[in-house]
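dumping this here so i dont lose it
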């Protein structure tokens, strides 16, 4: 590289300094500063997290990223500035990475690499992923990995240096990218695309040598990456007590595919959140024709690469084919040919990880696009007759990249809007740090319940933050019970059920249930957040208990007392807190029947097999709405709705009234199909006994246009205490632009009402007040780390050692060398049935942690071997070139003489 190119990339990479705001951190949505203290990082080296009743953890796989944060503390750099430094690192790395890839492929083109590198930073996609750590690491290092890979599969000798460089880069970037496993998958797909081309179309080395190079590459890369691959495998595949969250599927995220429009796809807009409520500069792009046109320039330039003859014409055509394929995958279930995309999701294993395809496949598309843009720009510049004209053309192209993404220069991070008035820049109140310190310094093993429990893991705070509550788990160095785990990729269904029950117990003032659950969960302190922006949540129909109502609930609990108020936070203590580890008598446990029970209150169904059912819906659905004719009749045992002459106003298909009760859960199921339907959605209305409307809520978006039968399922709980009736409404046809009539078919409408209660039979047998009849006594126990507990127990008869965590099957107990499996107790909690007596030394540990230690040793040994080879090779080459230089000087001296 020339000095001017190095200087230019570093200068561009320094842009994030313009975005820095002192004394703030950058935090919004899913993304909050990863670390507040070194203690948080120490727990990240364990494959088990004690938060939210205990669950497998993937943190060790990206612990390297945590170590980067630790370095900021040693360097005395505040978190906000460190975030900016990381952005600079991403930008500079991405530019040099893309430059290296372009030079590897187009070595004969003089300015292709510099153009590709600049475009790689200045494109619209990067604006949408600046807060996404996994995607940023993938984006920065993907071109470099591809460059090393191409060298390995095309060189006939001296490939070991490239192999080791590839393996090191993959281990570093891949581990942090594994925050979202789809990013690692995208890396592998890109490498497979390159391999396919060089095997099929441009074989440069013999098959035997190719296989050898690939085998060496695979072995070294896997060995060097084992330290983070093992936690990922354990988290996703080897934890039988957890399962993928139900919403990890393409249909649950199909609403994001609706935004994969032609304009978004070809402007490289990889964000599903490209809407005015999420992006402050949204209108500048939608209302400005010049900017809109400039957004298409990258594709036009890339297409121009196909017009030039030369050695790379076949390769360029292949790249364009890959790009078009990625465009098709990126559109997801957006029309046209949505059924083909759905087929891929249904039949390709693990395809669900790309449930938001526009952001994932756009990321993969851009390196290929940058290559073609660099090549095309270089070729066009060379065809111009004058040197000044060539340079001017290149300057114009770079200017287009810069202008079309102008927020890169101003500030693309700030996204505060009228609809979501929360800045991305946040100053964390000091009282949060003081509260953390107070709780973290308390001795003993206990859990902290965060109240009120969220209905979703992102909530707004009065101090300006709107995002994930996971920062509480990072800030407080004690196990925390909060809803964040309920929205992870992997969840324990028993824990989710118990968390929901605890939430309802507080919401509906069920004292006995509340005390039972927090007793079993080892809760000692309750952290009451009085700094939530409840007014904003109420406006957006969030189902979360008013902090004032939660304070009233806690103040009336007989065994809960307020012990500390720090700023806007209040700390309550449960004075009857139960121990983390305790003894159960097997016979008494059999008499306990502690379980969550569902009781059916209401069952209704309309299969539209009779005119009586049609009449019930006709009585509540108006035939004329806003001057439009709405016809409702039966069609092959389905309810058919036809909308004619529509001009304005929402048209509704309204169900008969359903009797309802506060604290009762209602499940709505129906099938729905549309032809030329417009913006079909579902709302639920609540009425009191006087038939006055008390609450209305949007609950489900179905589809737009023509669509086949969709199965709709909605869970709903009345929000108003005096609600007496519920009504289901299907809204559609507001200012419809579809051909009339708009037609909707409805079938098999089912409403199931049920209550969920906690049965506490035998609870008094679990925590007995006397130890006289206990089968064993805990003399001492130590929780050495999140994956290991040791205990000394004096047992007079067989007993159960209970743990207040939802342990999975990989937890084992060892008593005098004998391994004991854990056994279910109640509500998802586990224990160990021990038949031995006497003075027992018991070790309870999470066995996969051993795998992590062993894999880390293997990776460290491989790293040392790689570094040793690279050092030796560099020293050897340096000595070789020094000898060459000496010889040349001697020969030159002889010639002069």
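and the seq i came up w/
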């Amino acid at each position: 590289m020339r000095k001017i190119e190095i200087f230019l990339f570093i200068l561009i990479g320094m842009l994030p300094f313009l975005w820095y705001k002192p004394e703030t951190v950058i935090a919004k949505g899913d993304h909050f500063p990863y670390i507040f203290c070194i203690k948080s990082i120490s727990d990240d080296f364990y494959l088990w997290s004690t938060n939210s009743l205990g669950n497998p953890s993937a943190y060790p796989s990206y612990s390297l990223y945590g170590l980067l944060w630790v370095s900021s503390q040693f360097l005395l750099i505040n978190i906000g500035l460190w975030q900016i430094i990381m952005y600079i690192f991403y930008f500079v790395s991405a530019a040099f990475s893309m430059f290296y890839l372009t030079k590897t492929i187009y070595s004969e083109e003089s300015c292709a690499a510099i153009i590709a590198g600049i475009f790689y930073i200045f494109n619209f996609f990067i604006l949408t992923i600046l807060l996404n750590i996994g995607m940023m690491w993938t984006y920065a290092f993907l071109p470099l990995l591809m460059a090393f890979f191409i060298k390995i599969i095309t060189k006939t000798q001296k490939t070991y240096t490239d192999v080791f460089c590839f393996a090191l880069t993959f281990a570093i970037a891949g581990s942090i990218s594994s925050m979202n496993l789809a990013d690692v998958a995208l890396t592998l797909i890109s490498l497979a695309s390159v391999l396919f081309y060089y095997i099929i179309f441009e074989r440069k080395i013999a098959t035997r040598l190719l296989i050898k190079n690939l085998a060496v590459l695979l072995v070294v890369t896997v060995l060097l990456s084992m330290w983070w691959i093992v936690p990922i495998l354990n988290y996703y595949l080897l934890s039988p007590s957890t399962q993928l969250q139900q919403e990890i599927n393409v249909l649950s995220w199909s609403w994001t595919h609706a935004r994969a429009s032609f304009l978004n796809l070809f402007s490289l807009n990889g964000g599903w959140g490209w809407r005015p409520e999420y992006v402050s500069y949204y209108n500048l792009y939608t209302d400005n024709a010049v900017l809109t046109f400039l957004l298409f320039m990258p594709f036009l330039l890339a297409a121009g690469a196909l017009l030039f003859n030369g050695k790379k014409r076949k390769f360029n055509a292949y790249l364009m084919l890959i790009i078009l394929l990625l465009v098709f995958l990126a559109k997801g279930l957006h029309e046209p040919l949505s059924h083909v995309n759905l087929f891929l999701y249904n039949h390709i294993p693990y395809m669900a990880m790309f449930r938001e395809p526009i952001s994932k496949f756009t990321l993969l598309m851009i390196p290929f696009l940058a290559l073609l843009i660099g090549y095309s720009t270089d070729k066009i510049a060379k065809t111009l007759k004058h040197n000044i004209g060539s340079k001017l053309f290149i300057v114009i192209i770079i200017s287009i990249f810069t202008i079309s993404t102008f927020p890169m220069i101003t500030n693309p991070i700030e996204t505060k809007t009228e609809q979501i008035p929360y800045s991305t820049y946040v100053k964390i109140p000091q009282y949060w740090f003081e509260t953390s310190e107070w709780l973290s310094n308390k001795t003993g093993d206990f859990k902290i319940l965060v109240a009120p429990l969220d209905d979703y893991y992102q909530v707004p705070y009065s101090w300006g933050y709107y995002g994930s509550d996971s920062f509480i788990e990072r800030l407080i160095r004690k196990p925390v019970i909060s809803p964040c785990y309920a929205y992870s990729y992997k969840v324990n269904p028993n824990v989710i059920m118990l968390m929901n029950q605890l939430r309802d117990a507080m919401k509906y003032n069920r004292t006995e249930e509340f005390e039972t659950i927090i007793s079993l969960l080892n809760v000692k302190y309750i952290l009451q957040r009085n700094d939530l922006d409840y007014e904003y949540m109420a406006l957006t129909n969030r189902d979360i208990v008013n902090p004032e109502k939660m304070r009233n609930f806690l103040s009336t609990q007989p065994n809960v007392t307020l012990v500390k108020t720090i700023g806007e936070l209040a700390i309550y203590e449960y004075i009857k807190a139960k121990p983390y580890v305790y003894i159960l008598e097997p016979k008494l446990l059999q008499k306990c029947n502690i379980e969550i029970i569902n009781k059916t209150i209401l069952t209704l169904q309309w299969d539209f097999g009779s005119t009586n059912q049609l009449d019930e819906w006709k009585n509540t659905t108006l035939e004329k709405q806003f001057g439009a004719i709405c016809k409702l009749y039966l069609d092959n045992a389905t309810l058919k709705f036809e909308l004619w002459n529509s001009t304005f106003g929402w048209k509704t298909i309204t169900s008969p009234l359903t009797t309802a009760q506060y604290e009762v859960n209602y499940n709505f199921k129906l099938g729905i199909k549309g032809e030329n339907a417009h913006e079909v959605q579902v709302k639920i209305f609540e009425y009191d006994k006087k038939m006055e409307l008390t609450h209305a809520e949007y609950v489900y978006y179905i589809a737009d246009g023509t669509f086949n039968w969709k199965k709709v399922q909605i869970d709903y709980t009345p929000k108003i205490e005096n609600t007496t009736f519920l009504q289901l409404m299907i809204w559609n046809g507001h200012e419809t632009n579809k051909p009339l009539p708009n037609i909707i078919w409805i079938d098999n409408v089912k409403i199931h009402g049920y209550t969920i209660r906690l049965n506490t039979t035998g609870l008094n047998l679990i925590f007995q007040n006397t130890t006289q009849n206990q089968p064993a006594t805990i003399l001492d126990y130590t929780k050495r780390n999140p994956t290991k507990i040791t205990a000394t127990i004096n047992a007079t008869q067989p007993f159960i050692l209970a743990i207040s965590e939802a342990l999975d099957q990989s937890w084992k107990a060892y008593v005098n060398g004998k391994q004991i499996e854990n056994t279910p107790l109640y509500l998802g909690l586990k224990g160990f049935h021990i038949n031995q007596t006497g003075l027992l030394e018991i070790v309870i540990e999470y066995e996969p942690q051993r795998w992590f230690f062993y894999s880390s040793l293997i990776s460290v040994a491989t790293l040392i071997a790689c570094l040793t080879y690279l050092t030796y090779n560099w020293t050897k080459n340096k000595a070789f070139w020094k000898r060459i230089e000496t010889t040349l000087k001697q020969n030159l001296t002889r010639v002069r003489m």
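Residues 319 and 816 are 63 Å apart (CA to CA).
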